[in-house]
From TrEMBL:
Record localization: Fimbrium
Domain of life of the organism encoding this protein: Bacteria
Repeat is among the record's keywords: no
Transmembrane segments: none
Gene Ontology annotations of biological process type: cell adhesion
The protein's name: Major curlin subunit CsgA
UniProtKB keywords: Fimbrium, Signal
Main location class: other
InterPro entries: Curlin_rpt (IPR009742)
Length: 138
């Protein structure tokens, strides 16, 4: 019985540096939350036709990546990456009054944000050195 407890714990620790299963939501008032701790993690999230929805991703560690897409009104993307060499690509399209908030703490982090949503906002905050960000609103 003790062997199974150790094996379960080992599986949990190993899964910390794995790919988060790609999520796709298309219902209104949806919430998508991904939390990853460790290195070489990747999160892939998509919300389409999901009005008043929220995507919340937190990645702590190094060499993590996030690809997020959202196409709906009154929705938000909140991304936090803490560590080094993390990257994020966020796209928001065909929406109104939506928001993207990116926070990256550490060094060598990168963010690319594309937004084609009227009345919407983008905020990118990077603390550290060697970081880069590109934000485009159309």
């Amino acid at each position: 019985m003790k062997f199974f407890n150790v094996a379960a714990l080992a599986a949990l620790v190993v899964s910390g540096s794995a790919l988060a299963f790609p999520f796709h939501q298309a219902d209104e008032n949806s919430q998508l939350k991904i939390y990853q701790n460790g290195s070489a993690n990747h999160a892939l999230a998509l919300q389409s036709n999901a009005m008043d929805s929220k995507t919340d991703i937190k990645q702590l560690g190094a060499n993590n990546g996030a690809d997020v897409g959202q196409g709906s009104d009154d929705s938000s993307i909140d991304l936090l990456q803490s560590g080094y060499a993390n990257n994020a690509t966020l796209d928001q399209w065909n929406g109104e009054d939506s928001k993207i908030d990116v926070r990256q703490y550490g060094s060598g982090n990168g963010a690319r944000v594309d937004q084609t949503a009227s009345g919407s906002t983008v905020e990118v905050q990077q603390v550290g050195y060697g970081n880069n960000a590109s934000a485009f609103q159309y």
